[in-house]
């Protein structure tokens, strides 16, 4: 899992570098692009993923305490917050598309849609992993002695959260 996470972080780093270089070459285009984004949506997405990661971290603690039922509830809560992220992001995509912005509009929107959609797919994969973990906790599969798989899934989710925090600042905040 750590190798997979490292590979994913490398791909995101390439996106971030491309975004930063393109912005450096055309700051006015990127400034205008940011003005069309909804900063509050980015903030909602950030908060929901951070809160979701908090619940996943608590679930890891519960598994280490051999409390699978509590871990399952915490994972389901994390998934609920992840659903809020999905809803907010889909709403923003729809708003931008209705305004006529898409991948072909300009470099800003190409990079915005590619990078955030790539992250969106990682959130979906992470949600599948969390759901699988919740199913296994419902069957009391994990224990203090057998929690490596659970911790690996949690690490992936935290990577998804970390990447979004960086994306939020790069795309929505930094000018």
UniProtKB/TrEMBL annotation:
The keyword Isomerase does not apply. The chain crosses the membrane at residues 38-61, 73-91, 111-135, 155-174. Its main location: membrane. It is a multi-pass membrane protein. It is found in: Cell membrane; Membrane. Gene3D superfamilies: Cytochrome c oxidase, subunit III, four-helix bundle. Keywords: Membrane, Transmembrane, Transmembrane helix. Residues 1-175 form the Heme-copper oxidase subunit III family profile domain. Belongs to the cytochrome c oxidase subunit 3 family. This is Cytochrome c oxidase subunit 3. It comes from Thalassomonas haliotis.
């Amino acid at each position: 899992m750590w190798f997979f996470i490292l590979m994913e972080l490398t791909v995101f780093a390439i996106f971030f570098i491309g975004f930063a270089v393109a912005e450096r070459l055309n700051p006015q285009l990127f400034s205008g692009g940011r003005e069309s984004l909804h900063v509050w949506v980015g903030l909602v997405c950030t908060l929901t993923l951070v809160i979701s990661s908090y619940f996943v971290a608590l679930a890891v603690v519960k598994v280490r305490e051999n409390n699978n039922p509590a871990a399952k509830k915490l994972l389901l809560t994390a998934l609920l917050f992840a659903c809020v992220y999905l809803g907010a992001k889909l709403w923003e995509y729809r708003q931008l598309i209705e305004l006529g912005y898409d991948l072909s509009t300009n470099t800003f929107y190409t990079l915005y849609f590619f990078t955030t959609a790539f992250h969106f797919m990682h959130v979906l994969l992470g949600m599948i992993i969390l759901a699988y973990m919740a199913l296994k906790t419902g069957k009391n599969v994990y224990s203090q002695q057998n929690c490596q798989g659970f911790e690996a899934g949690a690490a992936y989710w935290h990577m998804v959260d970390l990447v979004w925090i960086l994306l939020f600042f790069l795309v929505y905040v930094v000018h």
